[in-house]
Amino acid sequence: RLLTVTGVQTCALPICLLEAWVPPLLLHLLEGLLRAGLLLGYLSWIGRMPEARRLFQYHGAEHKTIHAFEHHLPLTPQHIQPFSCAHPRCGTSFLLAVLVVSTLVFTLVGDLGLVERLLSRILLVPVVAGLAYEVLRLGAVYGDQPWARLIVVPGLWLQRFTTREPDDAQVDVAVTAFEALRSAEETTPPPPGITHHSEINA
Questions:
Q1: CA atoms within 13 A on the CB side of 185
Q2: Residue 31 CB: number of other CB atoms within 10 A?
Q3: Least CB-packed of 3, 35, 64, 86 within 10 Å?
Q4: CB-based contacts of 29: which residues, under 8 Å, 6+ apart?
Q5: Could you please report the per-residue DSSP string of the chain?
Q6: Residue-level pLDDT, tens digit, the chain, 202 residues
Q7: Could you give the CA distance from residue 197 to residue 97 in angstroms, rounded to a whole number?
Q8: With contact defined as beta carbons under 8 Å apart, do 182 and 72 qualify?
Q9: pTM for the predicted model, two decimal places
Q10: Residues 62, 171: contact at Cβ < 8 Å?
Q11: Interacting residues of 40 by C-beta distance below 8 A, sequence separation 6+
């Protein structure tokens, strides 16, 4: 994921070539659209590979398992399979949030030269990632509010590219991994500032 985000930041190079003809605000919007297009194109491309499709099935199984756990249901395929493959705290939603937040942040940074612009895209990655995380956390906390749905729904839509319907065997694998994680959490204290592991995004 870091490679994807970092690679997308290099969209600044071709965008810089347009700055003599395009207004600054429109330039930043075009840069954001180019990042989004590259991400969607990449996900669509790898989604055609058999290995990636199988990986995306396990991804869907993971989300279904979390849904069943959050609804206090037995972690068996018959209880897990009816749930959606999409989950609001998925890393795919985080990538989309990074794209949107980076467009806003880089617009506020303003006009820079080519070198300065490329450096800003790299140096501001931690800021963009932190803000994107907080946006997703806000959407998760207030998920029942209509305005929060505006944060959550685009990420759920994007997960259509990164999840597939799993079979029962893949669900069993997801349950085994989830139970192992829960066992590890019981013996490992949460990070500083976190009172419980469940506060960490999935």
A1: 14
A2: 24
A3: 3
A4: 103, 107
A5: -HHHHHHHHTTHHHHHTTTTTS-HHHHHHHHHHHHHHHHHHHHHHHTTSHHHHHHHHHHHHHHHHHHHHHTT---SHHHHTTS-S--TT-HHHHHHHHHHHHHHHHHHH----HHHHHHHHHHTHHHHHHHHHHHHHHHHHTTTSHHHHHHHHHHHHHTTTT-----HHHHHHHHHHHHHHHHHHHHSPPPTT-SSGGGS--
A6: 334 444 444 455 555 555 556 666 777 777 778 888 888 899 899 989 999 999 999 999 999 999 999 999 999 999 999 999 999 889 899 988 998 898 888 888 877 777 887 888 889 999 999 999 998 888 888 877 888 888 889 999 999 999 999 999 999 999 999 999 988 888 777 666 555 555 444 5
A7: 22
A8: no
A9: 0.74
A10: no
A11: 161
Spatial neighbors of 32 by CB under 8 A, at least 6 apart, are 99, 100, 102, 103, 106
